[in-house]
Amino acid sequence: MEAPDWWRDTVVYQIYPVSFKDTTGNGKGDLNGITSKLPYLKDLGVEVVWLSPVYASPMVDMGYDISNYREIYPDFGSMADWERMVEEAHRIGLKVVMDLVVNHTSDQHEWFQDAKNGGPKKDWYIWRRKNKEGKEPNNWGAIFGGSCWEWNDKLQEYYLHVFDVSQPDLNWENPVVREAVWDVMRFWLDKGCDGFRMDVINCISKTPGFPDAPVTDPQNPYQYGLIHRFNGPKVADHLLEMHEKVLRYYPNAFTVGEAPGVKSAEQALPLVKNGVPLQMLFHFEHMYIDHQPGKTCFNYKPWKLTELKDVLGKFMEFNQANGGWDSLYLENHDQPRIVSRWANDGLYRDVSSKMLAIFHATGRGTLFLYQGQEIGMANPTSWDFDELRDLEEIQYYEAVEAKNGDIQDALKQIQRIGRDNSRTPMQWNADVNAGFTSGTPWIKVNQDYKAWNVEAQSTSSGMSVLKFWKLVLRNRKEHPGLIRGKFEMVDYENENVYAYTRTDAIGQYLIVCL
Ligand code: NOJ
User: Fold this and answer.
1) Distance (Å) from CA 27 to ligand 1 centroid
2) Is the CB of 194 within 6 Å of ligand 1?
3) Which parts of the sequence belong to the Glycosyl hydrolase family 13 catalytic domain (predicted)?
4) pLDDT confidence of residue 156
5) Domain-wise residue ranges, the chain
6) pTM above 0.85, yes or no
7) CB 334 near ligand 1, within 6 Å
8) Alpha carbon distance 341, 361 (integer Å)
9) Quick check: CB of 282 below 6 Å from ligand 1?
């Protein structure tokens, strides 16, 4: 029998389907490719597989813009392929978690097509008139650039989009919208999906009255940031309703909410106390330490190890004292490769990747590995404009270019922090295109693949990064104190060493990372 809180001890592996394994030669990964690699994941020691969105989508934001919640994106395969994948996963003891993207839909979704023409679903989205000066209702900037408001001539109103203009925000104040979301969740849970990663879930409630955001960039009419767009007063209520209406009927379902702008474990607690309404959140505070506050990720800020300790140590210590729980992640499809970002992807790439594996796997929380992290994948050494695929990077580059800014520096910032860095194809072997596809990959393959790939690291005689990760995951399983034991920081002021102990009834582990 599975423990009711099995999700604390588990290891989740995030798959970015379009870049994982292509079986058709169309240059994009697919569901059959995932199915073919399930034994690899089982052998690695992971237990849950989370798929970034595989639903019907125009792919403006790579599937985080869904046009039909109940259909599969045809280039990824069919619903029958999805069913086979889940059946096979379950047969070998893996769970499958889907991405739930319900803060917004694609503008191609039939709900929005109806809304934008003034149909009965108009109130499923968020509309406002011009302000007194005949402009947008407020100064909110969209995450990918420009205003959060887009004018609709027919309705003589703006609609709200916190992300891209093609991603209109759903109106969670409307109970009919919430019911529609609960239906989507039941649809997938009843088909055998084992839970959800919930995209920007703290964006489903905005500050009432939609006040202006603080001005951090006076040159720009639209202010970048999360303030007033995230963490509105109803986030907890909506999620409690989700729990009441859906999740409590699926007590084994896995739930993690993505929550940028949740700054402390105290703030997170009402959303995750003792696993209700959600089991854990992805906060971003450790990912933000290299950004200038109030600016986009492309604005670098140097940081110190004690800042990282302040963030992660405080989250873990608060959660253990108060019934909260952490998610442990260092990479995902929105972040660059961690060995390039925090360590050394040159001479010390192998040993740095192993140090990060220990650091990652011995924190207090549920472990999330991102595809390729287990072989120490790194950022490509450079990007040309033509090679970019991510709309955030492209919009940033074009904005710099439009201002006659330094475009070489823009490409440097993209190489350092851009999202395409972690979206390059999974490196399976030293064959053409790293064994990812026999066709033309939708995004370039990192040129280091001949030396850094799964096959080489499985068959090498030494202790490769891959073998090291397997060992670390096995150890974690065999020593539950590493997961649930008491967490205490050691030598807090040290700027060169990150150390802590994990203690349970069996013993104490001292972890020293440098
Ligand atoms: C967070 C997702 O991880 C990211 O890829 C996406 O662009 C935004 N949410 C909008 O859905």
Assistant:
1) 22
2) no
3) 14-423
4) 98
5) 383-421, 486-514
6) yes
7) yes
8) 18
9) no
Percent of the chain with pLDDT over 70: 100
- Per-residue pLDDT averaged across 103-109, rounded? 98
Q: What is residue 128's three-state secondary structure?
A: strand
What is the 58 CA–ligand 1 centroid distance (Å)? 15
pLDDT of residue 69: 98
Centroid of chain to Cα 457: 26
Q: Which atom of ligand 1 is nearest to the CA of 101?
A: 11
Separation of CA 333 and ligand 1 centre (Å): 9
SS3 60: coil
Ligand 1, atom nearest to 104 Cα: 11
Integer CA distances (angstroms), 385 to 297, 399, 413, 433, 499, in order: 18, 13, 12, 21, 41
**Computed over its alpha carbons, how large is the radius of gyration of the chain?**
22
Does position 491 have pLDDT exceeding 90, yes or no? yes
Closest to 140 (Cα-Cα) out of 50, 224, 63, 60: 224
Q: What angle do CA 392, 395, 397 make, to 5 degrees?
A: 105
pLDDT for 2 beyond 90? no
Question: What span, in angstroms and rounded, lies between the C-alpha atoms of 383 and 149?
Answer: 31
Question: Average pLDDT, whole number, for the chain?
Answer: 97
Residue 458 tokens, joined: 């499985």
Ligand 1 pocket test: pick from 64, 100, 297 the residue with the most ligand atoms within 8 Å of its Cβ: 64
pLDDT > 90: what percent of the chain?
A: 98
d(CA 189, CA 312): 32
For 479-510, letters b (16+ CB in 10 Å) and e give bebbbebebbbeeeeeeeebbbbbeeeeeebe
* DSSP string covering 78-96: -HHHHHHHHHHHHHTT-EE
**H or E stretch at 306:** helix 305-322
Whether pLDDT at 94 is above 90: yes
For ligand 1, is residue 311 a contact (CB within 6 Å)? no
What does the alpha-carbon distance between residue 328 and residue 326 come to, in Å, rounded to a whole number? 6
What integer pLDDT is reported at residue 294 of this predicted model? 84
